[in-house]
Amino acid sequence: MELTLDILSWILMTTGGLFVLIGGIGALRLPNIYTRMHAASLTDTMASILVLTGIMLQAGFSLATIKLMAILVFLLLTGPTASYAIANAALLSGMRPDAAETSPDKAKTPTEPSA
Amino acid sequence: MIVVVFGVFLLTILVVTAVAIVRTENLFVAVMLMSIFSLLMAANFFILDAADVALTEAAIGAGITTVIFLGALALTARREEAVSSGRMVPLAVVTVLAMVMIWATFDKPRLGDPDAPVHQHVAPWYLEKTPELIGIPNVVTAVLGTFRGYDTLGEVFVVFAACIGVLFVLSAGGLRDRSKEADAESIGLKHHLIPKVVGRLLVPFIVLFGLYVQFHGEYGPGGGFQAGAIIATGIILYALLEGETNALRALPRRVLLGMVVGGALLYTLVGVAGMLLGGNFLDYSVLASDPVVGQQVGIILIEAGVGITVCGSLLSIFHAFAAREAS
Known about the structure:
The structure holds two protein chains of two kinds.
Chain A: H1 2-29, H2 33-59, H3 63-92, H4 104-108
Helix pairs in contact in A: 1-2, 2-3
Chain B: H1 2-23, H2 27-47, H3 51-73, H4 88-105, H5 117-120, H6 123-133, H7 139-147, H8 149-170, H9 178-187, H10 193-215, H11 224-242, H12 244-250, H13 253-276, H14 291-322
Helix pairs in contact in B: 1-2, 2-3, 3-11, 3-14, 6-7, 7-8, 7-14, 8-13, 8-14, 10-11, 11-12, 11-14, 13-14
């Protein structure tokens, strides 16, 4: 029982860490603000669920688990809201979510209109 | 071992962040990096087992200071002006100072060394006597509130003086035209429906958590400084969501100033009450028939004073920045 819980929580936490890593790579490599934020925010939400569930399994039935749940609820409420606020602010300040725009460098030199 | 590795990792990122803050010319980026710097510092304090300091650093450094810096940034330029000359002298001074400081660390005792002078002086006495004299589990609160009551009183007056100073400096210019405010209010966060809804949901819980930190400070990490900052964060969030006018309607300026003065006065009066009841200034033992209970009553009262002053000061400073017209 103990071992099963340990393995399960280990799997959850490692997967969560992996999600953070993927989000970080995405935030560095994707071309514009919307795609970057997409990478960072979705993976972060998933990672916080996984990591905190993993820690909860370690904590067992105790006060710590309830505190961790409160933290999880807080993160689930604020994380996506913050991403939304950033995206909305970017949109209001005039950044267009342009699918053709592949990189920030190319965005500055407009491509020739295709006939 | 793992703590050391983690600590070195955190300190490395800390140095990288500090260099990035110095190098960037975009002040907006610098403010965000300062926030990250504070958060890393808080994590550092936490792995050094200084939970109280970590809480303060996270609430004030990463939270409120960022908002106040952004408020200041709204009044000035976004970019640092390029400095072309006269950098050699500061560079030389900083280099020499850094060398001296690094050289001085060679004489420092190792991290966590039990034979270090700091652990040989009064710390063992505090640890030994706190359960007996004060009867509360959190020694940090006992040291802050009772053994070092004068220091904490001084800190409260520093916060008080700083708040008055900032208010004097900021009220020198023109305040924002009141007639425009209705206009600004209607714009508000109209486009930000989701943050507004979620924020409204969070504000009461943030204030509640602040009160928990305030009154649980004797049993766990926390106390007046942290609680004041957390409650101020909640109210600043309200001000950001609902507009400054609405926040001032809920907590007018004169109430905030009353908090700044009242908290410091409460602290002082607890000290004076001790004198009137036959003890020394800031000796809480005489506040109740049982000296241990008296100490606890005293700590609760002065922590409340600290919290009220800190909360009032931070909110006053925030509103002072928000009320300024961008020039």
